[in-house]
Amino acid sequence: MPSKDRIRRRFFEMISFSKPKHREIIDHHARLQPQYIVQQPRIVHTPITTTTTTNPIQDVEIYGFTKEGSGPGKNECQDTLSILYNIAHHTHFFAVYDGHGPNGKSVSNFVNKAIASSLTRHAIEMEQAIDMGSPGTFFNTMLKSTDNKLMHSSINVANSGSTCISVLVSNNRCYIANVGDSRAVLCRQTELGRVSVLDLSTDHKPTRQDEQSRILQAGGIIEPMYFNGQPVGPLRVWNKAKESGLAMTRALGDSKGKQVGLTCEPEVTQLDLGADDKFIIIASDGLWDAMTSKDAVSYIVNYLAAGRAKSEAARALTLEARARWAKTELYQESHYCDDITVVIAFLRYHPPEPTPVTMVDPQAQGPVYMP
User: Fold this and answer.
1) Residue 99: exposure state from Cβ atoms within 10 A (0-12, 13-18, ≥19)
2) Are residues 34 and 314 in contact, defined by beta-carbon separation less than 8 angstroms?
3) Alpha-carbon gap, residue 190 to 348, rounded angstroms
4) 144: domain range?
5) Is 255 in contact with 151 (CB distance < 8 Å)?
6) Of residues 300 and 245, which shows the higher confidence score?
7) Residue 275 is part of a domain; what is its CATH number?
8) Residue 341 within any structural domain of the chain
9) What is the domain count for the chain?
10) Does residue 51 lie within any of the structural domains?
11) In angstroms, how far is CA 70 from the centroid of its own chain?
12) Which of 21, 81, 98, 174 could form a disulfide with 70 if both were Cys (CB 3.0 to 4.6 A apart)?
């Protein structure tokens, strides 16, 4: 009987999609360079809560970086990213798309371009949806329309698809639309230096009870891959013919997965932003498989505290995750590392409005206001 090490090596040679090693792509956009000061932060992981300040956002700087993975048979990076400034008044959009399957790169590119086109063509409808308090309906319609176009395109999506993690910052509110197992996190830091890490999305994995229930009710099977009779890797979604084998429960594309409960419907959340909210990180699971949300935020907080440039922050975080991949047993056995794509949006706010102080002037007809 073959050893476990040999089984594991053979397994990853069998399932790995191809991407060449160490080719880097940088795509970053800068506007202003505000100062960022950090004082001995204490970092905790907290749920989403309403922020306590209402200073209007003055500027948003967004930077992105992609690094291809490595491993047996890899020949392309399947991740793409999008950064769109000013698609509407004080409104910016950024997203990461993680393709998978034989045509994952084509799917990721298709979805990226289709969503960017929809946002620019339907900016008025988007603003109206935000004003009416129904951004979820807008995102749901846009992503389902994109998925329908993808299904009727020339791309074979039987076993190929893409995740989508996207953030829309409009004035002092952000909207997060998530499909799949990419993720968005927020760094919140007070004047006293306390740092909180807020997950803005929840991964769509077969381990999540509500996701699992939907798959099973649709006739899907949830179990890991098996090699020589032994379970290997995470839980996956299969149809009865044991096709698909996705490690996520939502995606665009993946027509065979759609037969057993896979969906492209996004989970949309929203959050009011204030001066304590410093930056948002979104990334493909190549980052999150190597670092926790707290790890990623802590790394950037310390990176900024060292006086390093924001324009290189996404690159630095990506390379840190890659270095952690290289220490894993999986990498050492097969040189496997997933694609890693990171986008970071840094938020800067106007100073708070001065609080008027009412003083009595005996020579005046009314109160005098002094800031």
Assistant:
1) buried
2) no
3) 14
4) 4-21+37-201+268-347
5) yes
6) 300
7) 3.60.40.10
8) yes
9) 1
10) yes
11) 21
12) 21
Residues 6+ apart with CB under 8 A from 103: 155, 156, 157, 160
Domain membership of residue 256 (yes or no) is: no
Each residue of 52-64: pLDDT tens digit? 445 688 899 999 9
Q: Which of 299, 293, 304 is nearest to 323 (CA)?
A: 299
pLDDT tens per residue across span 233-288: 889 999 888 887 899 999 999 999 999 999 999 999 999 999 999 999 999 999 99
Query: 152-175 burial by CB neighbour count: b if 16+ within 10 A, else e?
Result: eeebebbbbbbbbbbbbbbebebb
Residue 112 in contact with residue 99, Cβ under 8 Å?
A: no
Q: What does the pLDDT average to over 71-93?
A: 93
Q: What is the DSSP string of 121-168?
A: HTHHHHHHHHHTT-HHHHHHHHHHHHHHHHHTSSS--SS-EE-EEEEE
Is 102 part of any domain?
yes
Q: How far is CA 81 from CA 55, 76, 99, 115, in A?
A: 29, 15, 11, 11
